[in-house]
Amino acid sequence: MAVAGFEIPALLPVKGCQLGATFADIKGVKPAKVVRDDVVVLRFAPGSSVAGVFTKNAFCAAPVTLCREYLGGAVEAFVINAGNANACTGDQGLSHAKQTCQAAADIAGVKPHQIMPFSTGVIGEPLPVSRLTTALPKAWETLSEDNWLRAARGIMTTDTRPKGVSKTLIIDGKTVTITGISKGAGMIKPNMATMLGYVVTDATIAQPLLQSILSRAADKSFNRITVDGDTSTNDSCMLVATGGSGCAEIASEDDANYPVIAQAITEVLMQLAHAIVADAEGATKFVAINVQQGETSKESLRVAYAVAHSPLVKTALFACDPNWGRIVAAIGYAGVQGLDASKVNVFLGDVQIVANGARAASYTEEAGQKVMDQDRITITIELARGSAEETVWTSDFSHEYVTINAEYRS
Amino acid sequence: MAVAGFEIPALLPVKGCQLGATFADIKGVKPAKVVRDDVVVLRFAPGSSVAGVFTKNAFCAAPVTLCREYLGGAVEAFVINAGNANACTGDQGLSHAKQTCQAAADIAGVKPHQIMPFSTGVIGEPLPVSRLTTALPKAWETLSEDNWLRAARGIMTTDTRPKGVSKTLIIDGKTVTITGISKGAGMIKPNMATMLGYVVTDATIAQPLLQSILSRAADKSFNRITVDGDTSTNDSCMLVATGGSGCAEIASEDDANYPVIAQAITEVLMQLAHAIVADAEGATKFVAINVQQGETSKESLRVAYAVAHSPLVKTALFACDPNWGRIVAAIGYAGVQGLDASKVNVFLGDVQIVANGARAASYTEEAGQKVMDQDRITITIELARGSAEETVWTSDFSHEYVTINAEYRS
User: Fold this and answer.
1) Same structural domain for residues B271 and B315?
2) Of A146, A303, B77, B249, which residue is least crowded by CB atoms under 10 Å?
3) Cβ-contact B356, B345 below 8 angstroms
4) Which residues pair with A225 in a beta bridge?
5) Does residue B194 have an active-site annotation?
6) Three-state SS at B199
7) Residues B126, B82 share a domain
8) Are residues A23 and A153 in the same domain?
9) What residues of chain A lie within 8 A of the CB of B228, using their CB?
10) Given B230, B328, B357, which is nearest A330 (Cβ)?
11) pLDDT tens by residue, B129-174
12) B5 occurs within a structural domain
């Protein structure tokens, strides 16, 4: 199940970025049920700038540890495997991640620290590193600029569909392309939880500026989506600028082209993030929770997350039940000090359901029902305390959510 | 569905407390599907001490507002209705709660502020107050000291079974009885979320001391259980001492009888709280999460709640899947500053699953599975930071949880 309208469009090649994929049976299904790519390689032109943001989970996975270490160096390739997270695997896990980098470096003719490893899948199982390294040459053979869709498919785990988006813009008379792919279908929440995102542009952007663009864009996109409130050990979102378009380097926020490229990259990240929510495990609804009139951004976010994480709100959304009492209860326990409940307004789409803390006189169950029956729903909350506004995106909890998460390992 | 082994035992009468119940069709089902008591009255001997703790939700319900106001006065009766929460009902809701008190006061021959009202059920619908007040005389006619089980049943909403416990002890050569009942089956969490608890003893205890006993006992029981992380607008837990046993008044912590009665009351509250978890919506597991070696109680609690609230852990529990990676991920994002993941240990029952942040060498899937197959599971987490220990109790997320919460209003 997944919310309609978020299907992957055609993905445009980006000059200076080749992609490859192969099947290595990382999950170790015997006999392998489905032969589906589970190893993906991204190869960048030498001199590409690479930026990254990573999980804040105290138990970060071995590959994340290496990526953090290698960030800022002359990275030329990403090796991504699905089926095993190589997380909570101790020293052995770190050794496995290093072996992966070494094997890829040998093929690419670069140093191991020029390869960044990424893993997604079950936590705590040893990575079958020899199956991975054995498969790497095959992945390398498939490298092509036209392989974005295959790569998008290869990084999937419980995702029901690949996720990606492309955008073009003109900078200095040259066409610049941005293409990104993402994966993640549950365990999604602020701080990049359980998702991988790879966005590549052929613009030329200096690394420090690229990192700043990514950090801000991630904060408005991947850090504002939540499915079940869990953050994973492996989340990573990478932004690469290959310079393949041949346009002049953008190195500072004072560059006239900075706002244009930053905005376009942010939009790509938002679309990738929304696609993750729309394909959340068992999702039937795509829900925006917009909190206005907070005293601070922090309290607006607190309220938005309290509503977004409430299993009672999420099951009501699944049931298409305009049970606004559950929304109001979640606002009430969000922990906003001194919140005056008698001033709070709540809207379901355009329909006001709560006026001054009680059911709006104009509200009818029919009007609420009409909004709830839609696939995309916006819940707007006015706190009457200030002007801070925040939006987070989430999905509902369905029977299928329980099924998927109860059966993921079997 | 409910975890076995928590069935209600025989409940002992408490001198000075009479209970009555009747059906008032508060929910307004037409035609009423099941004629089940939904109005309950507790009547106390004049001079009883009454203590209470209430929800911290900013949207507290009208009856909670009145209870807070009346606390400390000469309260002589409780009127409880199921089927409608009278929450987020604005001035009309407050007026309905006051009408309820007035009607009960007229019957009992006392003042309205000597009656405390309680409501549980759907939020935001007007309380059908005339059906309630019309039914009150009938409830009064049934008043009897032997009516505890009927009262326990009358306060149920989505509960699958009534909850109660009795305990006796000897004070000054006299037998003292403590009997309590509770309700709540979902939306349960710290700060008394969506539950009602009524504990009555025939000991004689001064009100300020009674309040202090209740606050501490609630903190170790009702404030340490969580099902879905939502706190309700109506949660209330009341403790009444009627003095009916004729034993000497206990008025200070220096009284030799204080620790004895305080301990017994705490045990009653813990049993009532655990019964709520074991009957949580769709629960198949009763899970204790014990966090040891925290630097502070606060951080131990944070970790315990992060694990207890993780939908991924909860669905794994339902699936009897020893997916310790999900437990570790939840510990990692609990927000403990400077947590050294490489020192953390985790046990499932007696089986060590994580040693120093990675899978324990001795761990086998079979051993983990054996623990997960049990109805009652303890997860022990050692943080290696200090000596603060906290335990919270929770349940799993099943298909039935989604079904119940998606269909509660229909």
Assistant:
1) no
2) A146
3) yes
4) A393
5) yes
6) strand
7) yes
8) yes
9) 310-312
10) B230
11) 999 999 999 999 999 999 999 999 999 988 889 999 999 999 989 9
12) no
